[in-house]
Design brief:
Layout lengths: L1 E6 L3 H12 L1 H8 L3 E7 L13 E2 L2 H5 L4 E6 L7 H10 L3 E4 L2 H17 L4 E2 L11 H5 L7 E7 L2 H12 L4 H10 L8 H4 L2 H15 L1 E2 L6 E2 L7 H9 L2 E12 L2 E12 L11 E8 L3 E8 L3 H17 L10 E4 L9 E2 L1 E5 L3 H12 L3 E3 L8 E4 L3 E2 H8 L5 E8 L3
Parallel strand pairs: 1-2, 1-4, 2-3, 4-5, 5-6, 8-14, 9-11, 11-20
Antiparallel strand pairs: 7-10, 7-12, 10-11, 12-13, 15-19, 16-18, 16-20, 17-18
The protein binds L-homoserine.
The site of L-homoserine (HSE) has 11 residues, from α7.
């Protein structure tokens, strides 16, 4: 019998208990031992709930119980999660977590402590919900040099953008529905301003490149300024707007970014809709590999956590080596990245067409049939730095969005 303790009985925590209860027999068979939830830690009481008999309010009960071999941290946030996880690892207990804030902020240190204690710190559920992506990067793809990771890593924003596109909903209605469905973070800012996707790409790129990618150094822009009219322009271009998170290695330099992009209908990420996530990994020998699936939600995320519990149970006294050095990876500023841009101008096209052509060269103009007093244009490839300088010459610009051009 392997005793586990679950820290946090919120959305993911209650999902973990539900999955273990529901799939009990299969999980025990696959673990090679019986997994038993000995404690659930939460500040709240849950009268009449299945966890009432195992509920504790004091973390030290778990820490001081030598029978607890695996601690499952699903509280979210950096503190007190970091303190509890660190103490658990130092006490020789493996930890499985879904907490990307914790992993992005302290991943390499917690991995090192796990290694020093011949136990495991596992975090498959921290990126992409149910999609297996951490483990593949750490095992199946280790033979190749990874050149790029790019994907849709936030289910809430993808759901919002999809609903705005397909249903014509406004931003607020789409966000409220995402929250009702349990996709959004407690603080929706983390989703809509791109912070959640930023932490996730920091985790994936740290694993892919072996050095710590500090999430605070990643240029991050969310979707809160994207409007229904922007989406209509994108549609006219046979494209959709997606929040993309990426980290790329090119000519000896590493670039990382989270931002909304206009994605053409021929691009595989175009059809990733709703709460689904997808992650491209490009290697020098393997070419493109894509991972796709449910990126958020109680039970998909819980299943990824429980799979880590099974892995930890199979490796109780053996560390599964993960290469994530504590040394920071040097990122190059986004001003050096080259791409096309879409720009919206709140003026009559005739009044500034010449100025735009003189400034940007051979641009492509786009107009919406039933919208007057404004127009859009798409530039040729230009560095971000040069684009920002040139844009200062154009009056009444109300929006600019990057174009995803690869593939
Ligand atoms: N709020 C996150 C998302 C949950 O929408 O993707 C999963 O990390």
């Amino acid at each position: 019998m392997i005793n586990i303790a679950v820290l946090g009985y919120g959305t993911v925590g209650s999902g973990v208990v539900e999955v273990i209860d529901k799939n009990n027999e299969a999980i025990d068979m696959k673990s090679g031992d019986k997994i038993r939830i000995k404690y659930v830690l939460d500040l709240r009481d849950f009268p009449g709930d299945r966890v009432e008999s195992v509920l504790v309010h004091d973390f030290d009960v778990i820490l001081n119980d030598p029978e607890v071999k695996i601690v499952v941290e699903v509280m979210g946030g950096v503190e007190p999660a970091y303190t509890f996880v660190r103490k658990s690892l130092l006490a020789g207990k493996s930890v499985c977590t879904s907490n990307k804030e914790l992993v992005a902020a302290h991943g390499p240190e917690l991995i090192r402590i796990a290694r020093e204690n011949s136990i495991n710190f596992l975090f498959e559920a921290s990126v992409g919900g149910a999609i297996p992506v951490i483990r593949p990067i750490n095992s199946s793809l280790t033979a190749d040099r990874i050149l790029e990771i790019k994907g849709i890593l936030n289910g809430t924003t993808n759901y919002i953008l999809t609903q705005m596109d397909v249903e014509g909903w406004d931003f607020d209605k789409a966000l409220r529905t995402a929250q009702d469905l349990g996709y959004a973070e407690r603080n929706p800012e983390a989703d809509i301003e791109g912070y959640d996707a930023c932490r996730k790409i920091a985790i994936l790129s740290s694993l892919a490149f072996g050095h710590n990618v500090n999430y605070e150094n990643i240029y991050t822009e969310g979707i809160s300024k994207i409007t229904a009219t922007d989406i209509r322009y994108a549609k006219k271009m046979k494209s959709a707007i997606k929040l993309l998170a990426s980290c790329t290695y090119e000519d000896g330099k590493y670039y990382a970014m989270v931002a909304p992009f206009i994605v053409r209908s021929s691009h595989p990420l175009y059809s990733v809709s709703g709460v689904y996530n997808a992650i491209f990994v490009r290697g020098s020998q393997i070419g493109d590999v894509m991972f796709y699936g449910s990126g958020a939600g109680k039970l998909p995320t819980a299943c990824a956590v429980v799979a880590d519990i099974v892995d930890a149970a199979k490796h109780l006294d053996k560390h599964i080596y993960t290469f994530w050095s504590e040394e920071n990876l040097q990122l190059t500023g986004t001003e050096n990245a080259t791409r096309k841009f879409f720009v919206r101008v709140k003026k009559d096209r005739a009044s500034c067409e010449k100025l735009i052509k003189d400034t940007f060269g051979d641009v492509k103009f786009i107009e919406l049939d039933d919208v007057s007093g404004e127009f859009g244009f798409v530039t040729t490839p230009v560095t971000e730095g040069s684009f920002n300088e040139k844009l200062k010459n154009i009056p009444d610009v109300c929006q600019s969005i990057r174009l995803e051009s690869r593939i």
